[in-house]
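User: quick one - fold this with molybdenum atom bound?
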Amino acid sequence: MDLRLNLRIALLALLSPVLHAAEFVPDDPSTYVTETLEMTGEVQNPLRFTIDDLKRLPSYDYKAVAAACGGDVANAEYKDYRGVLLRELVQKAALAGDDPKGWKRAYVIAHASDAYIALFSWNELLNTQIGDGVLVVYAQHGEALPPESGRIALVSGCDRHAGPRHVKWLKSIELKTVPQ
Ligand SMILES: Nc1nc2c(c(=O)[nH]1)N[C@H]1C(S)=C(S)[C@@H](COP(=O)(O)O)O[C@H]1N2
Ligand SMILES: [Mo]
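Assistant: Sure. Structure tokens for the protein plus molybdenum atom:
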């Protein structure tokens, strides 16, 4: 093999963990399945949503939001999800405290039951196109999500690569602020 090819392979091997973290595939996914979603952290309203609660909120089609923002539409058929906007859930929970600038220091962590997380800044959710594509999903192809995806999951359809901020077995949404 020539040196150039060897270097290319070495570089790819170095970069791949950034985009393709080792995917966790449990033997029995049902042990990780969550049936409710909790809003935790620095919130005024520590809400808990069942899947039925989520279904009563305004719902969005993943394929439509991802197409609108030019996001990751690879395998769009597979990604035929339906769910609610993360920013609308966070607005319902609302930030605790009376600092009018508190929201500017706020960030949101989506936690899974296997300790996987995805991280968003509040302004990213509220004030950029990325936020238009961040959905808490409960259905795929018009059916309940299968256990291996989690009955409740989070997807970020406007990301360049959807994998890293796809959270299966979504358990809670934590709202926090960077200390002053
Ligand atoms: N709870 C949980 N979600 C997870 C992971 C994980 O280990 N645990 N792996 C992530 C990774 S690294 C990828 S690439 C995607 C793969 O799923 P997808 O191809 O259906 O997006 O799931 C993501 N979601
Ligand atoms: Mo991944």
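One thing worth noting: The longest helix spans residues 3-19.
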